[in-house]
From TrEMBL:
GO terms for molecular function: nickel cation binding; zinc ion binding. This is Hydrogenase maturation factor HypA. It comes from the Bacteria. Keywords: Metal-binding, Nickel, Zinc. It comes from Streptomyces viridochromogenes (strain DSM 40736 / JCM 4977 / BCRC 1201 / Tue 494). The keyword Transmembrane helix does not apply. The keyword Zinc applies. Zn(2+) binds at C73, C76, C90, C93.
Length: 118
């Protein structure tokens, strides 16, 4: 399962970020996942729950921000959604474009530290 290795990588990276910040525990991790990143958000969420045990993220929630795939059309000077499966053809001027501007993201957008115990 490909999402498990991605979830493990996200957890390792978030764990490093948390430690660098002096954060003991993380309550939430937000990741940006592009429409074309090849990741199923539900599967990623499940893999995250399996992989988080024993890390600073053991009590953390995974928040997935989906990023739509958009390509740039030069003649129209506008972006258009390529959809899934991707179709690189501008709907306005009916011309092909392979200038993908977003949709392949797979990155940590932020981590939220747990409130310090009282
Ligand atoms: Zn166009």
């Amino acid at each position: 399962m490909h999402e498990l290795s991605i979830a493990t990588a996200i957890i390792e990276r978030a764990d490093e970020l948390a430690r660098a910040d002096g954060t003991e525990a993380v309550s939430a991790v937000t990741v940006r996942v592009g429409e074309l990143a090849g990741v199923v958000p539900d599967a990623l969420g499940f893999a995250f729950e399996v992989a988080r045990d024993g890390t600073a993220l053991a009590g953390a929630r995974l928040v997935v921000e989906q990023v739509p795939a958009q390509a740039w059309c030069g003649p129209c000077a506008e972006e258009f959604p390529v959809g899934m499966p991707p179709f690189f053809w501008c709907p306005r001027c009916d011309q092909p474009s392979s200038d993908l501007r977003s949709g392949r993201e797979l990155e940590i957008a932020g981590i939220e530290p747990s409130p310090a115990p009282a």
